[in-house]
Amino acid sequence: MTAAIELIGITKRFPGVIANDDVNLTVQRGEIHAICGENGAGKSTLMKMLYGMQSPDEGRMLVDGVEVELSSPSDAIARGIGMVHQHFMLADQLTVLENVILGSEPTNGIGQIDFKAARSHFAEVGESYGLTIEPDDLVETLEVGERQRVEIIKVLFRGAQILILDEPTAVLVPQEVEELFRNMRELKANGATILFIDHKLEEVLEISDSITVLRQGKTIATVDPKDVTAGDLAELMVGSELPTPDTTDSTVTDIVTLDVDGLTVLDDDQRPVVDDVSLRIHQGEIVGIAGVEGNGQHELVSAIIGTLDPASGTVQLNGEDLAHRSVRERREAGVAYVPQDRHVEGLLLEAPLWENTALGHQTQRPFANGIWIDRAGTRERTETIRERYDVRTPNIDVSAHALSGGNQQKLILGREIMSKPDLLIASHPTRGIDVGAQAAVWDHMRTARAEGLATLLISADLDELIGLSDTIVVMFHGKLVATLDPSEVTPRTLGAYMTGASLDGDAGPPDTNGDEEAAS
Amino acid sequence: MNQPLLRRIALTAGAPVAAVAFALTISSLALIVTGNNPIAAFGDMLENASRLETFVDILNAATPLYISGVAAAIGFRMNLFNIGVEGQYLLAGFFAAAVGSAGFIIDLPPPLHVAVILLVAMSVGAAWAGIAGTLKVTRGINEVISTIMLNFIATGGIIAWLILEWKDDSGASASFGTKEIDESGRLPNLNGLLELFTREVSKGRELTSVIFIAILVGVGYHLFINRTRVGFDFRASGYNPMAARAGGVPPKKMVMYAMLLSGAVAGLVGMFEVLSDRYKYGDSFVQGIGFNGIAVALIGRNNPAGIAIGALLFGFLSSSSGILQITGSATPEIVEIMKGIIVLSAVVAYEVVSRIRTRDEAKSAAEATTRMANDQPEEVSA
Asked: Of A213, A246, B46, B85, which has the maximum CB count within 10 A?
């Protein structure tokens, strides 16, 4: 039997990164195949190529044994491949049926939408795959799980036999997950092939027929769920060798700089995304937060810098509660911030470099003088940063978007550290930058630590986390679930804590209270 | 060595020159198609503009346009589209004229009287724009929609109703409107100043002294937006609201500030009529400057000097429509076509130039990176 999908030697490069490196994947017809891996492992890029949203630089793709070149999603749909995105793309004010036919409306001779034909085809699809949903309900009245079903029907309606589900369980509550799994089994029984991304290992083990693990853009292994435990999978995801921690002497003091206590942040649905988090960072200490992205790290950071308002809890800097102060007051109190996405929160891309240096510190010297911006002082500081942080630019009047990612990041780091903060929040400080700039950033962070800076480091890069941190805490589902010593951490424990997998009793319980763990 | 500098100058000057050249070409085509001689028409326009009286006309027309352009530009700098300058200045002009001519105010000494009128105008403009700001901040209502609706409410509703209440019933004039403001609340014309440099201004032309207010507004706008901390917050929010927020700029407050400031400046647009032309709000009070101000701000790229050029250009074109009618070398409507074409070609030309500039910058930054890497190969071996 020919495989539904066969990928041979797929490679995809982006400037400075290899997203997929010689990926090989075989998906049999009629199976549920899970793709696991940490963020940045290359799962999404791979799925996007399968759905025609991006094309590979190298390698071959076979669908049902035929070599194909997919240059757009409509190519993929024509080959029977459909994708359900993590974020639904539905029009709230239209009915289920209208949403399903949107973009591929059956029409009669004079170009009118043939709702009768649409309705009967809709019913057919629903029946043959065992998916039930009322076609005339408005989408805005539906639950999340039902919306997802609409998305799945939408794909099937277009004749897809192979479904790609991008983290389908991420948005669902447990009962909805069960319902989804029932639907997935039903789809499989009726001949559909499902490829899905997930990093909740228990779920993956429950539903899939085979599992492929990606790490750093490479296919590590394809395993049968009957042969592995969650712990094994976690180890595969994280890698068997961890970097050795930085051996320089500890500069940790016993003066508490940041003291977060019982911090809870709710999302729009009043569900806790940061759940009773307590955390202390001392002068000269780097605390690294490990965790699969989307487990509340960004919300935690936002609540500390002040762009999100916490529901409860305190954030103390040098003994002063900042939990309800404005971002500016926190900045002035000595909180520096290297955001996870420099283009979103870090830079004014169209503004010259020297103006970017003032951003975040525009109320302080040397950037401001009374109500005025001190242009000379700002320019001078920018020149200093350019020199000390090796920002490679023809001059400081070019716009920020002209610089490469690494140089932009060095500018941001220089701007933040040179403002002499007490606390630095660094979110993925070396993401997407070249190796040289990465080494420079790490070096500057170590120097600042030695000078007494307290740093909260969020990273998905284990080299970075283990290499820089004095303490590693693991965040899962909004909670801090473990505090680990970087020199003793093993791939198995780290991977297990990060994915919420049970450890079969070979390490401490993962669901300890973050409170005492982190404060200890 | 000097090539990059020359290129920069050429690029800076290139956009407006290209825009005007393009606009002239299209207008010429429009003239030829309608059976007119473009050379004769442009000749008439230029010759007319060289007269002293027309010069006064141009400055008088450019003055409110400039203020209106600055009002729009303040919003644009924050990515706010204040279409309500029109309603804001009409309402402000009406209240300023009404208060300025009211019985309890007319005994004030001249400077104070004028100051009260200006204050009323700015406050009313700010308040009216502030409604749109409040709606946006508290309810997320798009300012384009709310300011358009506020325009209608201001002109069709409030003014139409109050003008009957407060109309001039002295019987001295047959037209609708507020009473005339007393001498103490009027600004003198600047003909005397102008005549120091040239001959006597004839045909009853009076150069408005509100031009000084316009200059003050322009200088103030430049200092505020480019030199002050709050101005920096403004621009940062306009460039990238998320980064500004993470940098401590409160987004909602900035929206409010921008709307209030834009409205306050908009309130001054009608002052040339109230303080120096007709001294009242009447049924012939000038309309449409709010919308033309948006065009002028677009031509001037929200830059204080650029807006001035745009306002003078529009003033020149407006003053030309009369002469074209008189000489018959073209239909006066061609002037409106030219205004539209200039705005469009300016927007396109600026976009082209900014793309070229972006490419240049990226290239020079890449060169700097490799050059420095070659100079100091061990730089990053940290």
From this structure: B85
- Residue from A359, A361, A378, A401 whose CB has the most chain B CBs within 10 Å, to mutate: A359
Enumerate the CATH 3.40.50.300 domain ranges in chain A, comma separated: 5-228, 256-334+421-519
Query: How, if at all, do strands A372-373 and A335-338 pair?
Result: unpaired
Among B229, B358, B382, select the one facing A362 at the smallest CB separation.
Answer: B229
Average pLDDT over residues A427-453: 87
Where in chain B are the domains? 1-36+331-365, 64-328
CB A195 within 8 A of CB A162: yes
- Residue A261 in contact with residue A278, Cβ under 8 Å? yes
Q: Which of residues 318-337 of A touch B (CB under 8 A)?
A: 326-328, 330-332, 337
- ipTM of the complex in this document: 0.82
- CB-nearest to B246 from A327, A351, A401 is A327
In this prediction, residue A258 carries a pLDDT of 93
Q: For B245, which of A327, A371, A375 is closest by C-beta distance?
A: A327
How far apart are alpha carbons A262 and A515 in whole angstroms?
Answer: 7
Q: DSSP assignment, residue A265? A: E
Q: Measured between alpha carbons, how far is B145 from A290 in angstroms, rounded to an integer?
A: 46
Q: Is the full-model pTM beyond 0.80?
A: no
Contact between A292 and A199 under an 8 Å Cβ cutoff? The reply is yes
Among chain B residues, the shortest Cα distance to A407 is held by B369
| CB neighbour list of residue A403: distance below 8 Å, 6 or more residues apart | A353, A391, A392, A393, A411, B365
Give the whole-angstrom CA distance, residue B215 versus residue B114: 17
> Is the model more confident about A503 or about A453?
A453
The reply to whether residue A443 touches residue B382, judged by beta carbons under 8 angstroms, is yes
- Comparing C-alpha atoms, which of A210, A208, A3, A195 is closest to residue A84? A195
Nearest to B234 by CA among B307, A372, B226: B226
User: What is A256-334+421-519's CATH topology?
Assistant: Rossmann fold (3.40.50)
DSSP classification of residue A428: S
Two structure tokens written together for A63: 């669908």
Q: Which of A:384-443 have CB within 8 Å of B?
A: 390, 392-394, 398-399, 401-404, 407, 436-437, 439-440, 442-443
Distance CA B313, CA B375 (A): 51
The architecture that CATH gives domain A5-228 is 3-Layer(aba) Sandwich (3.40)
Residue with tokens 């083990």: A205
User: CB distance A392–B235 less than 8 Å?
Assistant: no
Chain A nearest C-alpha distance from B351 (Å) = 13
Burial class (CB in 10 A: 0-12, 13-18, 19+), A310: buried
Parts of chain B with a pLDDT under 50:
1, 376-382
B229·A368 Cβ contact <8 A: yes
Where is A162: in which H helix or E strand?
A: strand A162-165
Bridge partner residues of A58 (DSSP): A11
- CATH class, range B64-328: mainly alpha
